[in-house]
Write a structure and sequence with these properties.
CATH class: Alpha Beta
Number of helices: 5
CATH superfamily: 2-C-methyl-D-erythritol 2,4-cyclodiphosphate synthase
Helix content: 25-40%
Distance between the termini: 34 Å
CATH architecture: 2-Layer Sandwich
Radius of gyration: 19 Å
Order of helices and strands: HEEEEHHHEHEE
Strand order of the largest sheet: 4-1-7-5-6
CATH topology: 60s Ribosomal Protein L30, Chain: A
Strand content: 25-35%
Bound molecules: zinc ion
Largest sheet: 5 strands, mixed
Structural class: alpha+beta
Shape: globular
Number of domains: 1
Length: 179
């Protein structure tokens, strides 16, 4: 009696525990502009009078992307893995965080399929640097650049002229070779 009753339940549990084919992740970040520090966005150094302060090198785009990757596999976020209170991460190249997140995505049995991100900042203008940033993010994620969406907007009416904001979403797909 118990056998026949248990069989369907086991199937259901197995189904619930199996890995979904695709998952999405979302990340958001903001940093304040400060004078006399270098500006890095998407792993690219940009010429500007101000840089972004705060955690590591202040690369708001790589931080949002890192959180999107971590979120896609329901892992702890960037602040938990690399706390800004830890002096080890002061001034760190944020590609270190993105690569670690990518490693975790792969270890979970997934591959990044595509990424889409929006930067919101008053200056500098991103247009002239957008291709370089896409190339660099693609390189860091081992993806072709045409899988990297990147838009930039100015913060109309947000009263955040001294901040850079980044939103990012990522789609990950289960690898067929996944254990
Ligand atoms: Zn950040």
């Amino acid at each position: 009696m118990s056998k026949t009753k248990n069989q369907p339940r086991r199937k259901t549990e197995k189904g619930r525990n199996s890995k979904p084919l695709t998952r999405i992740g979302y990340g958001w970040d903001s940093h304040e502009f400060e004078t006399s520090i270098p500006l890095k966005l998407g792993g690219v150094s940009l010429p500007h009078s101000h840089g972004l302060g705060g955690h590591s090198d202040g690369d708001v785009l790589l931080h949002a992307l890192t959180d999107a990757l971590l979120g896609a596999i329901a892992a702890p976020d960037i602040g938990s893995l690399f706390p800004s209170s830890d002096p080890r991460w002061k001034g760190t190249d944020s590609s270190v965080f993105l690569r670690e997140a990518l490693k975790r995505v792969r270890a979970a049995g997934y591959a990044v399929s595509s990424v889409d991100a929006t930067l919101i900042l008053l200056a500098p203008r991103i247009g002239p640097h957008a291709e370089k940033i896409r190339q660099r993010v693609a390189e860091l994620l081992d993806l072709p650049p045409d899988r990297i969406g990147l838009k930039a907007k100015t913060p109309e009416g947000l009263k955040t002229d001294n901040a850079a904001i980044a939103h990012a979403v990522v789609l990950i797909e289960r690898r067929s070779t996944a254990a």
